[in-house]
Write a structure and sequence with these properties.
The complex is a heterodimer of chains A (about 230) and B (about 60).
Chain A: H1 8-29, H2 44-70, H3 76-106, H4 115-134, H5 141-154, H6 157-167, E1 177-178, E2 181-182, H7 186-227
Antiparallel strand pairs in A: 1-2
Chain B: H1 3-45
Chain lengths: ~230, ~60
């Protein structure tokens, strides 16, 4: 029987469940409503962590891509692919939650005049194209190398997207974390930290889950080839 | 639509998204594990060529 130490997936899942339950409880039963935005501000506690999770996933995918090109460890290409896939999932949730929040706060689902929104969308579409590129090439070292190079190019968009929130001329998209620290109360910051940890744990779990599935799939193909 | 309903919609969307993802992958993993077990049995049942012993297969990490 496997212990938690031996099975990382179960450990991640347990941690994620704990943090998610704590986060949602804090959001709805502990943290006060924002003075300016009211109840709708509670979307912030998942919207921002999803954005960070997307950045982290794309960054991790780029790191694994660099490792693949540099040291060629087995499985780096697969890990890069899965990380970028997770980043896209997080990106979808950022765009969906952000649009709903924008509708409540600004009265519009989307504003093309806002650089922060458009740059995140560009980042999302860039990595969406990763899959179009990857599956247009037959499996093999060539596909892995091309995917790795593409993933590395995309990582340059991450700081651009992140900094756009701070450098934009418009002041519609809120900036909460400034040089003076987080612009929120202690209870809000605690709730944000718990939700941030929960979302990162969630995507770590989903990453491990998808990786396990892909490795099983590869093992299955090896066995089928052995029997053929 | 009130603010509360919009916020509830966002949280429900996230919950459903994650639930759907987990269900899809849990189903896929269960099917894959079943197929791997079946194939491993077939490989183990395949008689080794005369004069050779069946090689030991190392387990592959899947998690």
């Amino acid at each position: 029987m496997q212990t938690l130490r031996e099975n990382r997936l179960q450990a991640y899942a347990a941690l994620t469940t704990l943090l998610l339950v704590a986060g949602v409880a804090l959001v709805f039963f502990y943290v006060p409503s924002d003075v300016d935005q009211g109840f709708s501000q509670r979307i912030f506690y998942f919207h921002v962590p999803f954005a960070f999770a997307a950045y982290c996933c794309f960054g991790w995918g780029a790191w694994k891509a660099l490792l693949h090109l540099w040291k060629r460890p087995e499985g780096a290409d697969l890990e890069s692919y899965v990380a970028i896939h997770q980043g896209l999932i997080a990106g979808c949730l950022v765009l969906a939650s952000g649009s709903i929040w924008a509708k409540i706060s600004w009265g519009h689902w989307w504003l093309w005049s806002e650089d922060q929104l458009v740059l995140f969308l560009v980042l999302f579409l860039f990595y969406s194209a990763y899959f179009m590129l990857r599956y247009s090439v037959p499996p093999g070292p060539g596909r892995a190398n091309m995917s790795a190079v593409y993933a590395l190019f995309g990582v340059a968009l991450i700081p651009v997207s992140f900094l756009a929130i701070r450098l934009a001329k418009g002041f519609i998209h809120p900036v909460v974390f400034t040089r003076d620290g987080p612009q929120m109360t202690g209870s809000m910051f605690l709730t944000f930290c718990v939700c941030f940890g929960a979302i990162l744990a969630l995507f770590a779990t989903l990453y491990q889950l998808e990786l396990a599935g892909k490795r099983l799939d590869a093992r299955l193909r090896e066995l089928k080839e052995a029997l053929a | 639509m009130t603010e509360v309903k919009y916020v509830a919609a966002v949280y429900l969307l996230v919950f459903l998204f994650v639930l759907a993802y987990l269900l899809i992958h849990a189903t896929k993993l269960a099917r894959l594990e079943r197929e791997v077990a079946e194939l491993a049995e077939r490989v183990a049942a395949t008689p080794a060529p005369r004069g050779e012993e069946a090689p030991e297969r190392a387990g592959a990490a899947v998690g």
